[in-house]
Amino acid sequence: MILATILGVFALGVRWAFSYSLKQQIISKLTALGQGIASSAELENNQLKTDNDFKVEKLLNQNQSLQWFDSQGKLLSSQGKTLINLPLFKENSGKFQEENSKIQVVTLPIIDSDKNRLIGYLRVSQSLEELHEIVEKLDWGLGIGIIVALVLSGGGGIILTNQAMRPIEESFKRLKQFTADASHEFRSPLMAIASNVEVSLKYPVGMRETDRESFEVIASATNQMTQLTEGLLLLARTEKNNIDQQEIVNLQTIIEELVEFYQPQFTRKNINLKTELDQSLSIQGNAVQLSRLFSNLIENALHYTPVEGLIEIQGKQKRDFIEIQIKDTGIGIATENLDKIFERFWRADNSRSYWDGGSGLGLAIAQTIASQHRGKIKVDSQVGIGSHFVVILPAYQATSLRKF
Ligand code: ADP
After folding, report:
1. Residues within 6 Å of ligand 1 by CB
2. CATH T-level topology, domain 247-394
3. CA atoms within 13 A of residue 126's CA, in its CB half-sphere
4. How far does residue 350's CA lie from ligand 1's centre (Å)?
5. What is the pTM of this model?
6. Model confidence over 2-51: pLDDT tens digits?
7. Span 171-178, average pLDDT
8. Where in the chain is the domain with CATH 3.30.450?
9. Predicted pLDDT of residue 52
């Protein structure tokens, strides 16, 4: 677009300068011609005449003409084809439209050199058709030149960008692979710590009360680390629009199961939960991942909503997509942070003090899963009033099996 604009402006400049200089050339040619002819004219018995041996016709080319006027502006005689049918504008030169063609006109006074008085006017004109033909050819040349330049620079740009992007893509791939490998390797030691701590807490024979508290802290930290490595593993392994194990999933069932699972926590916080889900909200995708998407959003609503708040979950099929809304009366998100909440590890300052169990990966995971299913998540929020998350996913259509 930028290149097209630059070339367009350049072409307009060249076109203007070229046609201006051609026109100036015509005007000076006509002025020189007119001056030459006018200098040979004289008044004989009140009639304007040129020297007998001066052959005016020979000086004119086929698209030029002459018109003689007396000193009052009355047309006396004309020579040539491209005549303009206009009364005389004394000492006037310019461009006039005559039927279909434009004509350049130069009008000169004729001065009797002996008596030094005005004896008439001479109007020299030339059709601008030839000039227009030349400018039209220039337009074609510039137009084709611009298209060729755009195609070549576009092609060159794509090749160069691909070359420049290759090492970046490779290092991104390596980083992703490293994250996946590291997270995978963390799993076994974490599992070993978790199971040992669990056993120690289950059979606390000989354990001091202070040790028990330490073991509980270790259990909670291990749990957080396990969730973090699993989140990282999921993010590193998911590719856009590439889902393993696709099936037809009913979101109504998934959300109802999640609501049931989180019910004790809602009750503990005395949160009023309202759900309104259409009967069948079928989409094509991976049930485990979709459940993860909605559990992340429901958990957030649960964590960031104070006691006795209200959470509403609504699911509707709208034409060929499904819209799930999760609305809470929680602490809200500042407008300037709305585009940061989907970044990995980003957490708002007020939410850190509100709930310290989060990792900042939940929404990044939710968004990755949504985009894998060709969907998106929209959010709207006001600090102190609440947040409103909307997940939009393409509905399953029995007739067209989608290939991701
Ligand atoms: P976390 O594990 O911290 O919840 P998320 O990626 O799920 O990570 O969310 C990122 C941040 O977005 C949160 O730390 C919080 O600041 C903000 N956030 C997400 N959901 C809500 C919500 N329902 N109400 C208020 N803030 C929210």
Report:
1. 296, 300-301, 304, 328, 330-333, 341, 346-348, 351, 358-364, 387
2. Heat Shock Protein 90 (3.30.565)
3. 21
4. 10
5. 0.65
6. 999 999 999 999 999 999 999 899 989 988 988 888 887 777 766 777 66
7. 91
8. 2-127
9. 57
